[in-house]
Amino acid sequence: MTASVDGNEPVEFSIEGKESMGNGGAVQTGHASVLLSNGKEAKLGLANQALTVRDLFPGETVGFPFSELDQKVRAEFQKCF
Predict the structure, then answer these.
(1) pTM higher than the cut 0.85
(2) What is d(CA 55, CA 39) in angstroms, rounded to the nearest whole number?
(3) Contact by Cβ (8 Å): 13, 4
(4) Do residues 69 and 76 lie in contact, with contact meaning Cβ atoms separated by under 8 Å?
(5) Which of 31, 39, 51, 80 has CB atoms 3.0–4.6 Å from 64's, for a disulfide?
């Protein structure tokens, strides 16, 4: 998958494990996760406008609008960075 902050160049990340799903097909069990640091000094900071994630699922894009966050919530997120 790739992730980009505020429209900057996307950074590629690997997903560890598998997620639990059962939609009529094969059921995969366990937990999937990703750390938004690729181990090569590339680390995403807290977005001012948006975090965009592409290809977590093939061909899918998800946007997280950080510009709409309340300042108190934003301050709490900032502690993670």
Answers:
(1) no
(2) 20
(3) no
(4) no
(5) 51
Of the chain, the end-to-end C-alpha distance in Å amounts to: 20
Q: CB-based contacts of 59: which residues, under 8 Å, 6+ apart?
A: none
**DSSP codes of every residue in 2-13:** EEEETTPPPEE-
- State both tokens at 52: 């965009």
Tokens for 33?
Answer: 């996760």
Angle at alpha carbon of residue 61, lines to 57 and 63, rounded to 5°? 130
Q: Distance between CA 49 and CA 45 in Å, rounded?
A: 12
Q: Tell me the per-residue pLDDT of 68-80, one tens digit each, with 9 for 90 and over.
A: 899 999 899 888 7
